[in-house]
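Example record

One chain of 162 residues, shown exactly as stored in the release files.
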Amino acid sequence: MMSNSVAQIVLRNPIHILSFGFGSGLSPVAPGTMGTLVAIPIFLVLVTFSPVIYLLFVMILFFIGCWACGQTAEALNVHDHPGIVIDEIVGYLITMVLVPVTWYWVILGFLLFRLFDIWKPWPISIVDKQLKGGLGIMLDDGLAALYSLLSLHIVIWSVKFL
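Predicted structure tokens for this chain:
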């Protein structure tokens, strides 16, 4: 359960609101999943732009996320507070790079990203434990997203050739 003091700190600062996925990280249940759900409409808007614009936006959001997560972690005095979910938003957006926009790929991308984000296979687990600060918060989800992206594209490619 999220304490009222955390919510008060988060809601008073736009940097923390961004880190907390526009408030989705304040969810008392599965904040990471809620943050990933917030990423779906963002993906649906971004995918209407060219792939270059999409990638540029995601890269910029990654670097802004590194900075914002560092600020929020410091303000809350917790390395990777469960409510910090901008990393999940960026992770899902990375997962969905060049993925066809259909409901089943959107859902499979969501499920794969949550799987790799929770499971944290090597080297994600090492990054999660060893790398601190905003970059550490963002990078483990970025790596989980790369696993998800690769897995999703393998499935998409396999379905095309069945």
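Notes: Residues 4-160 form one domain.
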